[in-house]
Amino acid sequence: MNHRLLRVRDYLRQNSLEGVIVAKPENRRYLSGFTGSAGMLLIGAEEARLITDFRYTEQAAQQAPNYTIIKHAPDIYDTLAAEIKALGWSKIGFESDFVNYDSYKRIAEIVAEPAPVQLDGLRMVKDDSELAAIRKAVEIADSAFQDILPLLKPGARERDIALEIEFAMRRRGAEKHGFETIVASGVRSALPHGRASDKLIEAGDFVTIDFGAVCDGYTSDATRTVVVGKASAKQKEIYRIVLDAQLAGVAAVAAGKLGKEVDAVARKIISDAGYGENFGHGLGHGLGLFIHENPRLSPVGDITLAPNMVVTVEPGIYLPGWGGVRIEDTVVVTPAGAAILTATSKELLELDW
Ligand code: ZN
Ligand code: ZN
Q1: φ and ψ at 124, to 5 degrees?
Q2: In whole angstroms, what is the distance from residue 97 CA to residue 116 CA?
Q3: How many Cβ atoms sit within 10 Å of the Cβ of residue 135?
């Protein structure tokens, strides 16, 4: 954790701040190791304090050895004010993308002009322990997908398939599922985020499943679209275009590229095939402690990719009233390209039952 603290201190120096209040759960965990659900960090050039409540003081002491643990008064802001006053700080940063208006007012009572800061960027490049957690999460999700393939048949309910894959991920060691599992069959596969419904799968349906496991706090993210039965010529054609776009997108990922440059490569393939209007979302996103993080691979993705960023590549084509396809892998940016973590085959699966 210490190298992460050093990076925050660099950030403070560059922004002429004496300290920063960290309250966003992902940043709190990233910078301290503390996994509890409540508390704030107070970080300065020499200081690292973790303010939390009675429930968590012992856990915090174990998980965050670089921090002085402080049990707060009934109102955490009273303790925060006392600590900042004792430190004599007046130039303090707060996470403007997280702190709500009521909390902002409390902070502004402590220091006159708290400075808006963005700390999420610190989490974009993953270190070895983070990559190991993501790899583990991806492996569990890959295995769970194989577990539930025999259940995909006519008459199966989307909601039940979602529950089965979540259960399979837990049984294989996931802490939980990373986000609401998507199972969308038949015409519902045209919904990019079609949460699993009571619809029964029918013969000939496309079934899109978007799922992720969480290990050590880190999320995996993958989507596969299969056909229950034999694929029609049109299903094969749409699938082929999305797969070509996905492969080209993965091949375009490399350190030094902008997110929008990678997006453009995959998007061109879908547009050239005449389906540009049917691919209405970005090509992919960063992921880690949170499911959707920077950098974005999208038409407005202006962050330059760097080694050990982890992103998804997930083009799709969605045809209202007919159905859709999305194919998504989790990949690690390398100096020369990308290493695909997701191991599940991307060849079109035609499932017998
Ligand atoms: Zn996904
Ligand atoms: Zn995704």
Answers
A1: -65, -45
A2: 8
A3: 18
- pLDDT reported for residue 353: 84
- Top CATH class of 128-351 equals alpha beta
How remote is the CA of residue 27 from the centroid of ligand 2, in Å?
21
Residue 89 CA: distances (Å) to CA of 30, 44, 95, 112, 115 = 24, 9, 17, 11, 13
Q: Which amino acid is it at 344?
A: T
Ligand 2 mean position, distance from CA 327 (Å): 10
The answer to whether the CB of 52 falls within 8 A of the CB of 60 is yes
> Over the stretch 57-93, which tens digit does the pLDDT of each residue have?
999 999 999 999 999 989 999 999 999 999 999 999 9
Cβ–Cβ under 8 Å, residues 184 and 207: yes
Question: 41 C-alpha to center of ligand 1: Å?
Answer: 31
Closest ligand to C-alpha of residue 287 is 2
β-pairing, 323-326 with 329-333? unpaired
| Residue 298 in tokens | 């999208």
Residues 96 and 114: their CA atoms lie apart, in Å, by 10
Is there a contact between 115 and 94 (Cβ–Cβ < 8 Å)?
yes
What ligand is nearest to the CA atom of residue 313? 2
- Residue 143 in tokens: 């295995």
Are 22 and 48 in contact by the 8 Å Cβ rule? The answer is no
Which class does domain 2-123 fall in?
Answer: alpha beta
What are the CA-CA distances from residue 346 to residues 52, 123, 158 (Å)?
46, 29, 21
- Residue range 120-148, pLDDT digits in tens: 999 999 999 999 999 999 999 999 999 99
Q: How far is the CA of 87 from the centre of ligand 2 (A)?
A: 43
Q: How far apart are CA 41 and CA 47, in angstroms?
A: 10
Interhelix angle 233-252/259-272, rounded to 10 degrees, is: 160
Instruction: Assess contact for 255 and 333: CB atoms under 8 A.
Output: yes
E strand or H helix at 226:
strand 222-228
**DSSP conformation class of 217:** T
**Residue boundaries of the structural domains of the chain:** 2-123, 128-351
Q: Say what the pTM is.
A: 0.95
